[in-house]
Amino acid sequence: MNASMLSYIVFSCLLLSVQAQNCTVREIIRYTIRLLEENSVSCPCRETAVSSCSCLPIAEPGHELACFVEGTEHMLKNNISSNAIIARLNLTFQTQLGRNLCESLARGDQCQYKTKGNVKEFLHKILRTYQAINK
User: Fold this and answer.
1) pLDDT tens-digit readout, 3-23
2) Contacts of 54 (CB under 8 A, 6+ apart)
3) Which parts form a coiled-coil structure per UniProt (predicted)?
């Protein structure tokens, strides 16, 4: 391996760690795990039936941030679980979307999804998304 290849690899790793930092990945993962521990109830999401179970957007690739903002706003309005944590996550997602801090997530500022899920499924989507960035 030559010196230019090594410097390229070091630079790439540095860029990835900076991007992960801007995405506040560890903080989001920690908060999401805490919310998942609180939300042990996994009720089915039915959009048509009147149900106490919230239906939140499960984002298409590239639209995660917009859907995370929309979903956490819905959770705040409906007093689902710990409001302080959800408010913090919502603000973080809005900041990341507005400043384009997580390039891999924000290709569009519209939430696009094919399916909706309950709170637990929504939180798992957040967790999987940020764990993938953290790798």
Assistant:
1) 555 554 544 444 444 444 467
2) 45, 74, 75, 78, 80, 118, 119
3) none
Tokens linked to 44: 């089915």
* Residue 100 tokens, joined: 């384009």
Q: Would you list the domain boundaries of the chain? A: 3-134
Q: pLDDT of 18-47, one tens digit each?
A: 444 467 888 999 999 999 988 766 677 765
Contacts 24+ apart (CB under 8 A), 37-45: 38/81, 38/82, 39/80, 39/81, 39/119, 39/120, 39/123, 41/120, 42/118, 42/120, 43/118, 44/118, 45/116, 45/117, 45/118, 45/121
Cα within 13 Å of Cα(67), Cβ side: 26
Q: What CATH number labels 3-134? A: 1.20.1250
